[in-house]
Amino acid sequence: MTTQTCDAVVIGAGPNGLVAANALVDAGWDVLVLEEQGVPGGAVRTEEVIAPGFRTDLFSAFYPLAAASPVIAGLHLGDHGLRWVHAPTVLAHALDDGRAAVLHRRAQDTAEGLEEFAPGDGDAWMRVVQTWRMVRDPLLDALFTPLPPVVPLVRLLRRTGVSGALDLARIGVLPVRRLADENFRGEGGGLLLAGNAMHADVPPDAAGSGVFGWLLAMLGQDVGFPVPRGGAGELAGALVRRLEAGGGQVQTGARVDRVLVSGGRAVGVRTRDGRQVRARRAVLADVTAPSLYLDLVGREHLPARLGRDLERFQWDHPTFKVNWALRTSVPWTAPGVRGAGTVHLGSDMLGFVDMAADLSVGRTPSRPFMLFGQMTTADPTRSPDGTESAWAYTHVPRGTDWSGAAVAEEVERMEAAVERVAPGFRDAVLGRHVQSPLDLEASDGNLVGGAVNGGTSALHQQLVFRPTTGLGRPETPIAGLFLASASAHPGGGVHGACGWNAARAALGAASRTGRVRTSLARTAWERVLRER
User: Fold this and answer.
1) Is residue 496 part of a domain?
2) CA-CA distance, 84 to 361, in Å (whole number)?
């Protein structure tokens, strides 16, 4: 069997892998992307799985992080067919009593709605927004930059001063329930923060949950929760078209089962069918950290401590998702929910705590908190006129046997939750498509057990602790091998930073000064692993 040679091999055609490949192609490298599935995109894909004309985003759907990401902006994907569209309102949290907290496109409109929950909460929201506007640009640069983000942090400090920087750092470790209590008298503002925090897997009373809720709520207030016109797959399609226009290649149906290592350096990959692809400069892996190190590389090539650390790698909570084709729009009780692209439902503030407790002890929540997407409301191309393409997902405990009755029971719980805030919902259902955690992993090997963020977002596995204790960078102990997936800093979400950072590290390692920096970084990491 012939051996192909290129400058760099990228394992996985998810958004991070495609961003990495584009960055390398822009630098003049010959790049080949190998993807196990039959289509590129990873967890950014759209198909008609329920009924003709109903386009379903099978995994991710709304993209505030992509809209705010300087990495995605720098790729100018609009030149390759990507078009962002917005729902009339960004997000709503529907309560069982018929009320709703609504995140509008204009901050003042959001504030006016929160004022109905408690006098003064509108002004409180505007103060939170003002803080965001002051720190936005340097903060986003810091989030999407390899560690340590020295230049963005200096810019941030200049804007905030020492006291303001300490206040911001406090938000970074504050539980979201405490953040809500400190800022709002009524329930509405807290619901917007806590609901967004629940996009991750950090409990509402745990340190670090506040920053997730604050960041996503502020991004929603800033750039909205946009969607690609035509489906999430159009984002992946634009990345592929840009890559191919620059001379890069994507091969689907090509499962990599080994990273080839010689003399302590990654020199290529072997596919399941026995084909070898040699890499002159680098191998970049858009796969989970445990899969890369334990399955593709092998313990024999790793420092012993890294192998042991990977045994305690923690996954995020599994996701259970249901997609619907609806003959009408959703009959929400609260008028403010009808124009929202994203809807949170199923829990109030105390319900968040109850659900987190259930998940922590391995119990399936009886009243699940759900994220609900009204895709046709956001993008009329998703289904025929007068209908709605919708989905919802919730987190479930790890270790559940998702076969037979367990799947049907979870679908019933989820539909009952929607029915409570939208009576008549079930009557509107034309068809459904269910994705249990096992189904998600079968469709994308990176979604291990239904985990969608490449590992927990909890503080103990973030920054220099991601994916294991070390330097928190894309370099690995193997020269020429770089981690480009959501298992790397800054973690989950479609922002492209994990792939971009890996590409930058590979480009740096290929330069003369970069080789020195990379050697020093690897030496430092290996020293950390030896000394622990």
Assistant:
1) yes
2) 40
What's residue 4's pLDDT? 93
Within-domain flag for 184: yes
Return the exposure string of 148-172: e unless at least 16 CB atoms fall within 10 Å of the residue's CB, then b: ebeebbebbeeebeeeebeebeebb
**pLDDT surpassing 80 at residue 198:** yes
pLDDT surpasses 70 at 531: no
pLDDT (tens digit per residue) in 408-424 = 999 999 999 999 999 99
Beta-bridged to residue 371, according to DSSP, are 344, 393
Strand partners, 9: 32, 283
* Boundary (domain end) residue, out of 437, 452, 467: 452
In a domain, 408, yes or no: yes
Instruction: With CA atoms as reference, report the closest residue to 307 among 460, 529, 531, 11.
Output: 529
> The pTM is what?
0.94
95 and 212 assigned to the same domain: no
> Are residues 16 and 128 located together in one domain of the fold?
no
Q: Is the pLDDT confidence value at 512 over 70?
A: no
* 336, 95 Cβ separation under 8 angstroms: no
pLDDT of residue 492: 94
Residue finishing a domain among 452, 469, 484: 452
CB-based burial label for 215 (10 Å; 0-12, 13-18, 19+): buried
User: Range of 127's domain?
Assistant: 106-217
CA distance 135 to 159: 7
